[in-house]
Specification:
It is a single chain. The protein is of the alpha+beta class. Strands 4, 5, 6, 7, 8 and 9 form a 6-stranded mixed sheet that branches. Strand 10 and strand 11 form a beta hairpin. Helix 2 packs across helix 5. It is flat. The two termini are 34 Å apart.
């Protein structure tokens, strides 16, 4: 819902009636200001309509004189500085997909990593130039998204099916974007027909998830099984081309309901479980030192629950030789084992 706020300032008191004197007409200046509660911004036409209506009300019904704000004592707040807000386009990034059991097919097929480096930049470009309707979003470049992805995750979670929310939040913060797309490719195959038609078929099975950094949770999920087929009598098309096209079509169809229609889902994700052991308890039982192992992607804010379910911890600081967590619930003990809750 869009709202319009209008500031009305009166510069004269009520009319003065005195014998032999002219009637003093009260004056009013209207200062417009607008804002929007959504990402599409405020409609300038609505602002102009509201201003016109107010001016008629003051001039014709209340018998006020509507003055130009620039000519008043408060002219420093001229209408030039209070224009309607420009539409704000959401920023979105697509990460390099995770992979599970991928079968590439014949030897001239591609890998998921190679395909993503071709397909995702192509998706970004075509969404703004060829797609109808165009996707009204501001993209983070795939190169920048991949760089930050590797900084946050390293190579540890590239092949995981789900990136925990604290890590996705960290990626979004570094990229200064609201939405981050994470996908999991379960299959990317290519096959060539042995018949005279030289038919080539690419196939992909993919899960697509969208993380909203403002809400700190996944807000969209879609699963796609997509094929792309070409018949080439001269066998000039490669399997890579049909695999890439299947990949592109799957991403496009999987994201369109979210980007174009604003659809959302209550996403139930499977977390990447981390195990931690309490090394020591200090601060009168209010804090603990956790051992989570080397090169484990622990971030501030992650929570751990004891295997017994009676104690909960939240990470407050990550050190090179351990992790400090505060006790949220229960009484921890040295040697007690905890699991991450995503």
């Amino acid at each position: 819902m869009k709202r319009i706020v209008l500031l009305v300032a009166a510069f004269a008191a009520s009319p003065v009636f005195a014998q032999g004197e002219a009637v003093q007409v009260p004056k009013v200046a209207i200062y417009p200001w607008s804002f929007a509660e959504n990402e599409r911004g405020t409609n300038p036409t609505a602002v102009e309509t509201a201003l016109s209506t107010l001016q008629k009300l003051f001039e014709k019904r209340a018998q006020f004189e509507v003055t130009n704000p620039v000519s008043t004592a408060a002219g420093r707040y001229s209408s030039r500085s209070v224009k309607p807000t420009a539409p704000e386009r959401p920023k979105i990034a697509i990460l390099e997909p995770a992979t599970t059991a991928v079968v590439a097919g014949q030897k001239e097929s591609t890998t998921v990593q190679e395909a993503s480096r071709r397909v995702i930049p192509r998706l970004i470009k075509e969404s703004q130039e060829k797609f109808k309707p165009k996707w009204e979003v501001d993209w983070i470049t795939f190169e920048e998204a991949s760089r930050v992805q590797k900084e946050v995750l390293g190579d540890r979670l590239i092949n995981s099916e789900f990136i925990p929310a604290p890590l996705m939040q960290q990626i979004a913060d570094r990229l200064h974007c609201r939405y981050v797309v994470h996908s999991v490719v379960h299959e990317l195959t290519g096959a060539r027909s042995t018949r005279l038609t030289y038919q080539r078929t690419g196939r992909i099975v993919i899960d697509i998830l969208v993380f909203d950094a403002r809400e700190n949770k996944y807000v969209w999920q879609d699963s796609r099984t997509q094929t792309s087929t070409r018949t080439d009598w001269f066998a000039s098309s490669s399997l890579v081309e049909v695999q890439d096209q299947a990949f592109l079509n799957a991403l496009r169809e999987g994201l369109e309901p979210f980007i174009l229609k604003g659809e959302r889902k209550d996403v139930q994700t499977r977390g990447v479980g981390l195990v931690a052991t309490v090394k020591s308890v200090f601060s009168e039982g209010k804090s603990v030192l956790l051992d989570v192992g080397a090169d484990v992607p622990v971030t501030v804010g992650m929570e751990f629950l004891s295997l017994e379910g009676n104690c909960r911890l939240r990470v407050v600081e990550v050190l090179s030789n351990g992790t400090i967590a505060e006790v949220i619930e229960g009484v921890p003990a040295v040697g007690q084992v905890f699991k991450s809750t995503g």
